[in-house]
Specification:
GO molecular function: 4 iron, 4 sulfur cluster binding; metal ion binding; molybdopterin cofactor binding; oxidoreductase activity
Low-confidence stretches: none
Structural class: alpha/beta
Domain 4Fe-4S Mo/W bis-MGD-type: 2-58
CATH architecture of the largest domain: 3-Layer(aba) Sandwich
Number of strands: 34
Family: Belongs to the prokaryotic molybdopterin-containing oxidoreductase family. NasA/NapA/NarB subfamily.
InterPro entries: Asp_de-COase-like_dom_sf, BFD-like_2Fe2S-bd_dom, BFD-like_2Fe2S-bd_dom_sf, CT_Nitrate-R-NapA-like, MoPterin_dinucl-bd_dom, Mopterin_OxRdtase, Mopterin_OxRdtase_4Fe-4S_dom, MopterinOxRdtase_cofactor_BS
Shape: globular
Distance between the termini: 58 Å
Protein name: Assimilatory nitrate reductase catalytic subunit
Mean pLDDT: 96
Length: 885
Amino acid sequence: MAAEVKTTCPYCGVGCGVIATVDETGAVSVKGDPEHPSNFGRLCSKGSALAETIDLDGRLLYPEIAGERSGWDEALDLVARRFSETIAEHGPDSVAFYVSGQLLTEDYYIANKLMKGFIGSANIDTNSRLCMSSSVAGHRRAFGADTVPGTYEDIELADLVVLTGSNLAWCHPVIYQRLAAAKAARPNMRIVVIDPRRTMTCDIADLHLAIRPDGDVALFMGLLAHLSTSSAIDQNYIASHTEGFAGAFAAASALDSNDLLERTGLPAMQIREFFRLFEMTSKVVTCYSQGVNQSSSGTDKVNAILNCHLATGRVGRPGMGPFSLTGQPNAMGGREVGGLANMLAAHMAIENPEDRDRVQRFWESPVIAAKPGLKAVDMFRAVADGRIKALWIMATNPVVSMPDANSVESAIAACPFVVVSDILRETDTARHAQVLLPSLGWGEKDGTVTNSERRISRQRPFLGMPGDAKADWWQLAEVGRRMGFAAAFDFDAPAEIFAEHAALSAFENNGSRDFDIGARAGITGAAYDELSPFQWPQPAGSAPGVTRFFADGGFYHADGKARFVAVEAPATDRTNADFPFTLNTGRIRDQWHTMTRTGKSARLSAHIAEPFAEIHPRDAIETGIPSAGLVEIDSPHGKAIVRALVTDRQARGGIFAPMHWNDQFAAKARIDAVVAPITDPFSGQPASKNVAVTVRPFPASHYGFAVSATKPVTPDAAYWALAKAEGGWRLELAFDQTVEDWTAWCRAVFAIPDEIEPLGYADRQSGDLRLAFFDGETLLAALFLAREPVAVARNWAISQLSAVHGDLRKRFALVAGRPGAGRPDPGATVCSCFSVGVNQIAAAVREGCHSVQAVGKQTSAGTNCGSCRGEIGRIIDRCLAAAAE
């Protein structure tokens, strides 16, 4: 009988409930949990494809020391000995942990406890520093604690939703669908999108403010000045529950209208309309994400937003408030246990001696970190200059995701002792580890995560532990024991860790701290196994329910009042004559972080299969970059080569490139190698959205496209991008010099036996070449070459890996690169959930489907997660316009 397990999605901070079903054969399927209050059964394309990402291909299954397999005792003894020796010789600040929002709360808790309470250093930071730390800093400055006041329900109840620095449709698709459904039910709801790019989220916007990079502080300063002279200002709330309004108002008023227009780059009419909407609408929710946080002025951006909500008293009530949209599945859980270098567990402050004493007494630890540790960028600088001599990296890939990534890689490579805990054996970071420790992945892990609305949910295992892989908390606890702290790390199960975490949250609290889940302090294994999603706070004696903060004050500064923060509008332009473009990095719809999970899914890779850069058509003409050509992006820190996507969605002077691709999937596409290590002075968060670069066409002599039944070896090519495909792999190529023997090249890259001869042709005049290798009726590999970007129907060519080629005509059709009659090309994938291509959608439009709903009814496109509905709408518009012409 098939077994169902309720668990939680491992991707973004929405925290969707998932039901995983394992049938009698061991096959896994997933669906949304209709009872989970985060998603009510919805899943995005990534969540829907989770079952396609849990194979053991490439998994790290056994501990390794210096590249050789070892046992756990040998590996853990070495880790404990080297860390202990380093601390004894150089002090506790000579070691560091770099952890991840992919960890479960129980993993995070043990890492924080070991480093801050027993090693005695705060040198533990997390990749959440790269996405959420400005929000943390802004919350702490304004509220006195890292408190998200509202809930997802508020987004649906609002009459005005402001989305700033958030491509909600692609980065938080399930919340986007909840918002789209609310707007459909209440057409008078208004949505404003503030973003330099016209993203898919703009399809439901009533107003798109194409703001200049880092113009947000000025915009919300202008809004505060406007609100302060209007009836929207809430003088009673300001007087009763806040401090510092006069200073914030004075700073905002000092920004004159010309400065506002210059810094934002927005038309005066659009600014006035935005201000009018905010002023006249009581129920306002302002959602913000990485476009706000990932900035050298990120904390000021957050406080500029919070100032406007505090000034109007629009916080903590249904349909009102600022809302930080979390990037990772457990960035919030990490914040709860003090995973950042400048925080203590249970939202206590490392700079507060009473909090330090309280945590040390609770842990009964020999020491407690007395000062904040090194934040991520500074941590890797300390690795580079030798201050940090032993480093443990867990569940993250900083060689890809950190700014100035080449320097980070050099630092890790030179570090005397590096430990990496991960699920994959080969990553850009793992290749530099002296010790590799195999961790559990989604479906194997057992613990909890916290989503953007403070909701704690269980991740439950439904798969066995593969090989010798172990939980991250177990690895950390074992090292703690071996370093001489056995009693403090005597845990046998994650339920015991969660119970301790809950007890610490309630320890000497009495309502003085926001994070309190004391009601779960005595939880047992059985109750933990059955734990339903619940929202904090939940102090002892309380019942679960929807909770909001600050409607009636009650902030966490000593006087109980919030703080307005006087902010200054920063300079927004980093470009110069040598680096005249602004690079903006971010996520795309169907990939996640550095692709260690999503890169396994052919369905997810079908939508966008290679790294790219969006560039405005006029900029492309002026720089000589052809559509679908290759573009070289340069900064003083590094270089990347990606595909050019010429589109007017991108503003002039700007470039957008995704952050996912790495050396496992592309030749030179680690975009964070280009990003400068500039950080926010308060949060330490890197500025990944405003990077001065230059762009130029990459001079390729030949372009190529290939399909292969087996994974190709790294090709000898100036540019390559590899992606999983149905039945095998797909490979994009470009060469800057001639290859003398293409048949030999194919044999080496695709492992073609010598006895198999190719079918193909070459045209010396045009430069076209086609080679296909068959083993009986099965296609092993095919290569298509041309002097211009190859125009072969890619999805059709991929489908030939699964086709039977007994007919010679079918083989010649493949070599020609043209589908024959009765075998139409579906076109580029638009809907990843159901693998529906652009040509199939266009055909439906020609047959009379003139709405997104009608196309969905005929093709299923857009009927699952809905992330592609904006693209479908644009295809419909283009088809109808072409028909009219």
